[in-house]
Amino acid sequence: MAMAMSDSGASRLRRQLESGGFEARLYVKQLSQQSDGDRDLQEHRQRIQALAEETAQNLKRNVYQNYRQFIETAREISYLESEMYQLSHLLTEQKSSLESIPLTLLPAAAAAGAAAASGGEEGVGGAGGRDHLRGQAGFFSTPGGASRDASGPGEEGKQRTLTTLLEKVEGCRHLLETPGQYLVYNGDLVEYDADHMAQLQRVHGFLMNDCLLVATWLPQRRGMYRYNALYSLDGLAVVNVKDNPPMKDMFKLLMFPESRIFQAENAKIKREWLEVLEETKRALSEKRRREQEEAAAPRGPPQVTSKATNPFEDDEEEEPAVPEVEEENVDLSMEWIQELPEDLDVCIAQRDFEGAVDLLDKLNHYLEDKPSPPPVKELRAKVEERVRQLTEVLVFELSPDRSLRGGPKATRRAVSQLIRLGQCTKACELFLRNRAAAVHTAIRQLRIEGATLLYIHKLCHVFFTSLLETAREFEIDFAGTDSGCYSAFVVWARSAMGMFVDAFSKQVFDSKESLSTAAECVKVAKEHCQQLGDIGLDLTFIIHALLVKDIQGALHSYKEIIIEATKHRNSEEMWRRMNLMTPEALGKLKEEMKSCGVSNFEQYTGDDCWVNLSYTVVAFTKQTMGFLEEALKLYFPELHMVLLESLVEIILVAVQHVDYSLRCEQDPEKKAFIRQNASFLYETVLPVVEKRFEEGVGKPAKQLQDLRNASRLIRVNPESTTSVV
């Protein structure tokens, strides 16, 4: 029964969550109002979690089932495609057989040639079918809209065919002036962008015996083309692009420093393009080699002087013939080398960066001690193009435009592969730029809370944790590399510290916080900065150098506040004893003076709740010692003179007031009270200030000693009207 109720409740909850008008906020509000307590909410939360897990399992099951169906469908398509290829091949053979039957019935070869010539002119003039050259007798047509020159016509026929074809291409009349040039193959292609694989334009390729002409379609003029580019076969490399839908039936042409990708109509035409390109390149290379050999051959037979007919020739003067060193051939016929460019393309497309770099390392190791004949140079040119593409992808992986989630470890994959490719400096620069953007984003996302100290705690935690993680990841990634990378990291750390100090100062110093709050914030920042010492990175001096100006301004501002407050109290000074009224207030004052370092304050207390000191002197003592304690929290060597001069200025205000009152007061009783306050100031307060300053700084202050020694004039000659200052 309980199980049935649970199932019905789960189904009702599922229907409620799947409804089109479901609103999470309204649902939670109603649930909170209807629940009896925390237990109901916990149970409801468990039901939602169970429903989420069930939904996730169903989703995984459906994805797996669809994936299996997709694989089976792809396999069936592959089988169907192979059968279609076989059927196309059979039809092509049947067509060739049927076309060869009338040729056997012709009475003479001359008549056959004349018929072929007339048929060629008629075929070129017509525009029927997808390829405008199919009716030409000097060509045999393929189902993909491509034509290949048959072996029947002679050189004159080939030249005439080329002339007729090129009349359909605007802007290439200069090609007709090249002697011995003829058409080998032509066909329609579609060009794609090499970087983004977006379709660009329809083109028509004309392969001559020494070059490749690419022409674009003219949509408004059917059967006409416009000249686009001409590439010599000597500097042209052809690369087969493996089928990886939607990248299908494609091949790439590499012409330093550019590359172009073309798509054929089907796999058969693509195979024909690849074969005829390679054959034509081989034929051209063989022709050039023969021409070079003929040019280097001697004009006449060499004159050989026989040793028998020259008895005066000395054997020792005879120079031995130097054998010709044949260039060592490098075996590039292995399957993994032949498929290396295509495998690199696949690895880059599938983001298998490690696999791509492993293939490059394997090739470099294989060719390490081998010569560089033309086939090796051609292979290296193909590989260099892939290396450039791989580097661009890795650079994009480390760009700040990518997601910055995952921390420094998320960059390790791209950085390590760039280092393996020999791009250590670029990897270092991109890694640090990525981490700078991550730190900047993390600081900007911090919410500015009402309490400054709370915000500073969060800011320090976020920044120094990121800096520590970046330093550890940097040490892992760039271990064993050039030491210059570590210098770059130190420069980056200083720049990042500047970013942190900007946010820190804007919140602490620009908002005019109290000196005690500023001191606590600086103390928190120093403590976090010292944690970097665990990895051998000390940036304390950098944070001191960046904060010194702001701290100087804060000390100067608070010093002025104390001086103004002291002068205001001095103007209202009546030189009367303090009456704290209650023992609790007196006890509190004793504790405050004890915390200030005045341990003998008991001797200045009288009967009941009286204190034998002026309110002005007591307030000055507490304020001065408070300023000193907070300033020592901010202290570092660059602030020594600033702090010392501020203390002297504050103390001089009180000293001058006491000295002036002592000289001007005529009432003996008040004069004795003033002298008692002066004694407290010189003999108790100033030594405590001097001692605490020396403890906080680590060395005594001569200016404070001189100021305290000046009090001897008052004790020696209290009736003198000469100023002690």
From TrEMBL:
PROSITE patterns assigned: PH_DOMAIN
Gene Ontology CC terms: exocyst; growth cone; perinuclear region of cytoplasm
Region ranges (Disordered): 139-158, 285-328
Localization annotation: Cell projection, Growth cone; Cytoplasm, Perinuclear region
Stored SUPFAM superfamilies: Cullin repeat-like, PH domain-like
Pfam (any one): VPS51_Exo84_N
Gene3D superfamilies xrefs: Exo84p, C-terminal helical domain, Exo84p, N-terminal helical domain, Pleckstrin-homology domain (PH domain)/Phosphotyrosine-binding domain (PTB)
Top-rank taxon: Eukaryota
Domain PH, chain residue ranges per copy: 182-282
Transmembrane stretches, start-end: none
Record keywords, A-Z: Cell projection, Cytoplasm, Exocytosis, Protein transport, Transport
InterPro entries per UniProt: Cullin_repeat-like_dom_sf (IPR016159), Exo84 (IPR033961), Exo84_C (IPR032403), Exo84_C_1 (IPR042561), Exo84_C_2 (IPR042560), PH-like_dom_sf (IPR011993), PH_domain (IPR001849)
Biological process (GO), any one: protein transport
Physiological role: Component of the exocyst complex involved in the docking of exocytic vesicles with fusion sites on the plasma membrane.
Subunit (UniProt): The exocyst complex is composed of EXOC1, EXOC2, EXOC3, EXOC4, EXOC5, EXOC6, EXOC7 and EXOC8. Interacts (via PH domain) with GTP-bound RALA and RALB. Interacts with SH3BP1; required for the localization of both SH3BP1 and the exocyst to the leading edge of migrating cells.
Family, similarity comment: Belongs to the EXO84 family.
Official protein name in the record: Exocyst complex component 8
Native organism: Piliocolobus tephrosceles
